[in-house]
Design a protein that fits this description.
Radius of gyration: 18 Å
Number of helices: 11
Structural class: alpha/beta
Shape: globular
Helix content: 40-55%
Strand order of the largest sheet: 3-4-5-6-7-8-9-10
């Protein structure tokens, strides 16, 4: 199989930026601490910092980007601001994947089109889940097939059971969906390296040493970066890369360079640090950015702001990882 990771989607040749192997960050969406309105200057500053740290690409309006808290107009504004920031800083080839999930086929296709107009190159889509009891495999296949037929942007499937009422797409289903030419990858936030291995093998996924079919098998958490590489994966889309991007990139690069023992040793440091961010979720990740970079702020309500003691505990918990980050 060959997928359209690059210059073609639904039969239309484009100048779409290809997805390289490596580390991607699902960027945070920053808000004014008083009004909760979008903080566009900080969104742009953050995108530039991540690109300069060596990330392969960015994901806007994912789970870490609080897509569920944003209007469609805000989603477009965030993606547009991110593209403008990357281009202004000289990262014109850095691709953007846009979280574009809506509840209906029609709404999702519309948001895919708006994402393209805002500068997005690909979309990241969860399976529909609001009417959970009706979402059997046939309904899920129908949804993704219809969206893939109508989207101007290629699709990366997003397997995150915790966000969709427990829907966990298995490897057979993901391999079946990969037959569509406009479905070009999967993000495995389920954490199943076995599933990632099976899908990467069946799709002949792109790796650092082989272009393969172009299909992208993304690990969804940076604490299994080395494991993703061992499994034949293509990259990592991980919230921890918002905080410690250079460390994430270093682990990836060490393994790719054949320095396996060094990569494994540094993976342990990364995994220890990332656990403090994972436990504290969006509020904790934003406060870690605040502690170490001087910006970050808070999530939109109803997510709670963290107490000072919790913020201090997170900063202490990631200290080892951040010492490595600062040294790179």
């Amino acid at each position: 199989m060959t997928v359209s990771n690059g210059n073609e989607a639904n039969g239309h040749t484009t100048t779409r930026r290809p997805l390289p192997c490596g580390i991607y960050a699902p960027t945070m969406t920053f808000f004014d601490p008083e009004t909760e309105e979008l903080d566009i200057p900080t969104i742009k500053k953050h995108a530039e910092r991540l690109a300069k740290a060596g990330l392969a690409g960015l994901v806007t309006m994912g789970s870490n980007g609080e897509a569920i808290h944003c209007t469609r107009e805000e989603k477009v504004a965030v993606t547009l601001a991110t593209r403008e920031a990357l281009d202004a800083a000289g990262f014109t080839t850095t691709p953007i994947i846009v979280g574009a999930t809506e509840g209906s086929v029609k709404g999702t296709i519309e948001l895919c089109k708006q994402s393209e107009a805002a500068g997005g190159d690909y979309v990241l889509l969860l399976p529909p889940s609001y009417f959970r009891a009706q979402m059997d495999e046939e309904a899920i296949v129908g949804y993704f097939t219809a969206v893939a037929d109508g989207s101007p942007l290629p699709i990366v499937l997003y397997n995150y059971p915790g966000a969709v009422a427990g829907i966990d797409m298995d490897s057979d289903l993901l391999i079946k969906l990969a037959e569509h030419p406009n479905i070009i990858g999967t993000k495995f936030t389920c954490g199943s390296t076995g599933k990632l291995t099976r899908v990467a093998l069946a799709t002949n996924a792109k790796t650092p040493t082989s272009e393969g079919s172009g299909y992208m098998a993304f690990g969804g958490i940076c604490d299994f970066t080395v494991q993703t590489l061992v499994s034949g994966g293509s990259g990592i889309i991980a919230g921890g890369a918002n905080v410690m991007p250079k460390l994430c990139v270093k682990v990836w690069n060490l393994y790719v360079e054949g320095k396996t023992e060094e990569a494994i040793a540094l993976q342990k440091v990364l995994s220890r640090g990332d656990w403090f961010l994972t436990k504290a979720a969006i509020a904790g990740t934003k406060q870690a950015i605040q502690s170490y970079y001087g910006y970050g702020g808070y999530p939109r309500r109803p997510l709670k702001r963290l107490e000072k003691a919790k913020v201090a505990a997170i900063a202490e918990g990631i200290q080892e990882a951040m010492e490595v980050e600062k040294s790179l």
